Inverse folding.
């Protein structure tokens, strides 16, 4: 069969900006406080069920102009399941969400650097931040779509793609838990110096996003703030199919 031509993303055509508007109406006071306390926060109902299924459909229908590569996780020891990296230009809705989300998270990124005794240096706009990635030779798109079937899982990891790294990332659950899959929970671990690691399970509904630390975050101890290492992964999918979109703000080398 001939490969079908790349299709435009039919997610509520003309409403690509709706998710960015929903972002603006999140409780950012709560989100910022939870990020400081736990290194993770949930943004409820960022995408509608129709937007979720529209986007998830891209996994099968998107051609080489949508995705730049596919990774079969077992081949790299990353777990079981697969994912595809989007190529630039990103689907309009994801591009707008990524840009808008950066704008909401940059204050936390700069605050975290200040807590760790670093000079806060993240620019206010994502466009400027991408220029910084490009100057460091990081030019490839990192947003991705992940697809897990029953039995699949994602080993604990950190999404670093070069020296330039934004400290927060987001994952959006496109599938409906219980209806479309069981199991498959987003899990975070926090590796505290000279202590046992702390696990967190992040409950997500369809269309919810989790924002969390990419690799480390500041934690207040008895002698000021120190850096704790964070990793994320996904527990085994017990039944059904689970699809997510990952939004990472740095480009890849
Ligand atoms: O599927 C998930 O919930 C996690 C995906 C992930 O590792 C990522 O977006 O970086
Ligand atoms: Fe990841």
């Amino acid at each position: 069969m001939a490969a079908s031509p790349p299709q435009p993303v039919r997610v509520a055509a003309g409403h690509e900006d709706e998710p960015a508007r929903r972002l603006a109406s999140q409780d950012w006071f709560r989100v910022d406080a939870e990020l400081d306390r736990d290194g993770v926060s949930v943004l409820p109902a960022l995408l509608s069920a129709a937007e979720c299924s529209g986007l998830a459909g891209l996994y099968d229908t998107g051609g080489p102009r949508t995705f730049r590569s596919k990774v079969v996780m077992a081949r790299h020891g990353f777990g079981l399941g697969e994912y595809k990296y989007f190529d630039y230009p990103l689907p309009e809705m994801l591009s707008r969400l990524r840009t808008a989300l950066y704008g909401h998270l940059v204050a936390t990124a700069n605050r975290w650097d200040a807590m760790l005794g670093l000079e806060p240096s993240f620019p206010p706009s994502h466009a400027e931040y991408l220029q910084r990635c490009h100057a460091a030779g990081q030019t490839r798109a990192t947003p991705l779509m992940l697809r897990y079937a029953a039995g699949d899982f994602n080993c604990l990891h950190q999404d670093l793609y070069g020296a330039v790294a934004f400290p927060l990332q987001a994952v959006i659950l496109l599938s409906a838990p219980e209806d479309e899959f069981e199991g498959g929970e987003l899990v975070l671990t926090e590796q505290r110096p000279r202590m046992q690691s702390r696990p967190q399970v992040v409950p997500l509904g369809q269309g919810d996003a989790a924002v969390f630390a990419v690799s480390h975050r500041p934690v207040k101890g008895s002698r000021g703030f120190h850096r704790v290492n964070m990793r994320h992964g996904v527990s085994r999918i017990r039944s059904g199919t689970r699809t997510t979109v990952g939004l990472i703000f740095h480009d890849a080398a």
Notes: The chain has one domain: 21-248. The first helix runs from residue 18 to 24. Residues 157, 159, 232, 246 surround fe (ii) ion (ligand 2) (CB under 6 Å). The CA atoms of residues 151 and 237 lie 5 Å apart.
